[in-house]
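Note to self: the last two entries modelled the partners one at a time, which told us nothing about the interface. This time every component goes in together.
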Amino acid sequence: MIATQLGATHLQFLLQGALWTVVLSAIALVGGGLLGFLVALCRVSGSRAVRLASGAYVQVVQGTPLLVIMFLVFFGLPPLGLNVSPLAAASASLILYVSAYMGEIWRGCIESVPKPQWEAAECLAMSRTQRMFHVVLPQAVRIATPPTVGFLVQIIKNTSLASVVGFVELARAGQIINNSLFEPFLVYLIIALLYFAMCYPLSRWSRRLERRTGFARRQQVVSP
Amino acid sequence: MSQPLPSSAAPVVSLRDVHKSFGSLKVLDGVSFEVPRGEVMAIIGRSGSGKSTALRCIDRLETIESGEIIVCGHRVSDPKLPLRALRLDVGIVFQSYNLFPHLTIEENICLAPVTVKGKRRAEARETARRVLGQVGLGDKLDSYPEQLSGGQQQRAAIARSLAMEPQVMLFDEVTSALDPELTGEVLRVIEQLAAGGMTMVMVTHEMGFARRVADRIVFMHQGKVWETGPAGILDAPETAELRQFVGSGL
Ligand SMILES: Nc1ncnc2c1ncn2[C@@H]1O[C@H](COP(=O)(O)OP(=O)(O)OP(=O)(O)O)[C@@H](O)[C@H]1O
Ligand SMILES: [Mg+2]
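The predicted structure of the combined assembly is written out below.
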């Protein structure tokens, strides 16, 4: 990074950062999605204790800035004898963060499946688990797709916070390059464009999905 | 504990002095009636008189405060009753069909027989074909609910219940959401079931239908069985309330 003009190496470095942003986002989505699914199931559990415990988890995570979670994991764990790499710290923090928000989004989707659907399944002698997996979840998934894709945009943007634990993703890569080039406007403009290129298609997709499922749901609501 | 009773003389559904409130609102105030095997009972009455609640109590969708409900030998009023056993014996159809919108009609019908009763797919499909033929929808196996008319959806919902081979069927105003020209096709299906000997309890606003199909009428008023008897009571009501109800043309 000795050249004083923006060159191919710089761009390559930025693209590499962008790739890490994508990887981190994917980890957060998959890990946070799995954990979030569990959280959503717990939030609508038949057991009051499970509902309360998962509710408290969501409240605590949602009430803590992602930045603080990152600090806690990266700087808080080593004194306890657990050394974490920047990637591990960023991944774990994002998974916690995403699970709480996804859990709440999906709880809402599960609860928005009309109650008569539960009842109809119950009257067919289906167990709670059977009702959930055969009747409610398949319908909840359709409702959940647009807000989930929409939230993916938030995840991508939030990965930029991983730079505080020294993880070199797109935002951090931009910082490093700017430190040698002193061209903040140009560099950050490129960064912004790269984020936009990742997020915009997702927003568009989410809005398209929203319109489509909104239509489908209007057709299927028949209960008075 | 709640094995079906062997005696064929025992009524399929029996309510004795059932009380039920929603908060401070008394909805069932000492309701008693019995439905012998093979008989059809029609529950009629003004809006809010507790008809749906009575029906829902039979399938334990509501719990009661006091009294006794026995359905197919299951002591429904017992808080520890295993619900699965009860629901295997009772079929219920609601005003709002409640078909599963993400499944085809065939899948709607096969779901419970396969998951609950452990039937093999092929066998469940056979049953689906049979019950759909029974309700006149033999050609709609692969349709989704939203592709059917209200009357067709309601008949599919009835077929879905029948596929579980219940001992008794409960109907709660199953034609109230339908356009008048579609009610006939649903009522005909219920009438065929009655002719086939199915035990049924139906809440209905269709007086002509109740007269024709019901062996016994229960007129509910203010949470009580105000008047009960064979369909003839509609022509010669004893109470002023029933006279007024019948006269109002509801
Ligand atoms: N889940 C509930 N919570 C509170 N009140 C209820 C509930 N369900 C019914 N009620 C009330 O109980 C009373 C009886 O209701 P129910 O549905 O049994 O009447 P109904 O005879 O079926 O009337 P309709 O002909 O309008 O269907 C009504 O006043 C109703 O508002
Ligand atoms: Mg009602």
